[in-house]
Design brief:
This protein has 167 residues and is an all-alpha fold. Helices cover 83% and strands 0% of the residues. The chain has one domain. It has five helices and no strands.
């Protein structure tokens, strides 16, 4: 929580201040999504650490009759944190944040901005996979590979249009 998510707050605020002049409503939307990503992810980590840790300790001290209920409770906490918070909300909000930053940087850093837009859209697609119940790693790897190919094609197409015509 403290070593990953919350350290991104200054970055979110810096990007907002730096890019807000380009398109204020998009910078605001991106910052809200970024802060939502940060705080939902940090809260999920805290929930898993506190509730999960308590359930693990309770399981080790419980009788055989109580262990099934504790295991079911732990499974519920794990599913809420992993599938609902980290794989659904976090990917949706992070994808929105990254895509908005990419759009806002398009004029200044075209190659980086296109990569950010494509990766942000890939994260939103991963969130949609979670909504439909697909939790396999294979479609995610294929999706990231496809996103990188789309980015490379976008950059190549843009560069080819900017090349001067041969005499």
């Amino acid at each position: 929580m403290f070593y990953s998510y919350l350290l991104l707050v200054p970055l979110a605020l810096f990007l907002h201040r730096r890019l807000r002049a380009n398109l204020p409503w998009l910078a605001d939307l991106g910052t809200v999504a970024g802060l939502a990503y940060i705080f939902v992810g940090a809260a999920a980590a805290a929930i898993l650490a506190i509730a999960g840790g308590s359930l693990v300790e309770a399981y080790s001290a419980a009788t055989a009759a109580d262990r099934a209920a504790i295991a079911t409770s732990f499974d519920l906490v794990r599913n809420v944190v992993f599938f609902a918070l980290w794989q659904l909300l976090d990917t949706l909000t992070l994808g929105t944040w990254i895509s908005s930053v990419g759009v806002l940087l398009l004029a200044e850093r075209p190659i980086l901005s296109r990569l950010l837009v494509v990766l942000g859209l890939a994260l939103i697609a991963a969130s949609l996979m979670s909504m439909t119940g697909v939790h396999s790693l294979a479609p995610l790897v294929v999706g990231v590979g496809a996103a990188l190919l789309v980015w490379a094609g976008w950059v190549i197409l843009d560069r080819s249009r900017r090349l001067p015509a041969a005499p």
